[in-house]
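S.,

As promised, the zinc ion run. Input:
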Amino acid sequence: MEFKKVVKDAEFFDPFNEFKLTKRATEIRIDPLFGRSVRIIYFPVTLPPPPDQRPIADATKPFCPFCRPAVFERTPKFVKDLVPEGRIEAGGSVLFPNAFPYDAFSGVGVVGEEHFVPMDSFTPEVFSDAFSAACNFIGRVYKKYPEYRHHSINMNYMPTAGGSIIHPHIQVIAGDIPTNYQRELAERAGNYGKKHKKDYFEELVSEEEKLGERFIAKEGGIVFLASFASMGITEFLAVFEGGQEMTAVGDKVKEKFNALISGIRSILAYLHSLNFASFNMSIYFADPESPEYPTHMRIVPRTHLPPMGASDINFFEMLHHEVLTIIKPEEAAEGARAYFKA
Ligand SMILES: [Zn+2]
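Predicted complex:
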């Protein structure tokens, strides 16, 4: 497996250093599976502490449709032949149809009863309940409509990451048409297997474990890494060992959720320590028809960039499909490791 990096130096006379000739590096990395390039840019900014989220939490709480009892009064109900009871409940989580759906089967699951949860304060129970409700929903769809086999749990935490409601929630999608990512992953991993006679993700995990630079932990049959070519400012990847058996509708994946949740909480605690207060997360469930496509998860922190509060997404990502990374994966792995040991 090739982890290809190219460094490009820009030279200029630096006004902040008496106009001395200065070299500044941009590192271009090629993702070993997708072949796409990402750029690690020079952006030596320490994020300031995020603005206090409590005022917006307090202001939105009286109108929140996800708080109790509103969640039982003001959220949609599923059609009777799919979910006869209307909504799916698991512990503190309630899952119901998305009123603004992304697909034919598009659910929203409330993550805990608390309206506002700081990024480093999620309990294992709230994630466990929400994931359990999500798998229950996916299972019911899959039983009735097995062609809807592309399953994912997704989260936009806080408005900076695209979340339009402060109350923590997940988006659960079961589609017959894969997303671009899901389609490309199945194709690329399948082709990799044919070409190299090896499973891409098994190979990735074993290479990363050997190199150690981006390897974070292996816990409960899940391997946590910082991705070589990030999908954002930096990115964490968790790969479920056991491949095809780890579908959202099987029991085996549920046995591993505790280890996944423990890892998610460690990653969020690390990101919180860097003053991030927002993130996107996706859990992509194994595709039963693509043996090389294991269940895996990615988390990317989101932020506004100082000093103007600029968006962390610009023309590069929007119009060139090229991600800009500001935290080196190797540094992110080192930082996160401490929180996995804690
Ligand atoms: Zn609420």
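The two ends are 32 Å apart (CA to CA). Residues 61, 64, 66-67, 115, 167 surround zinc ion (CB under 6 Å).

- D.
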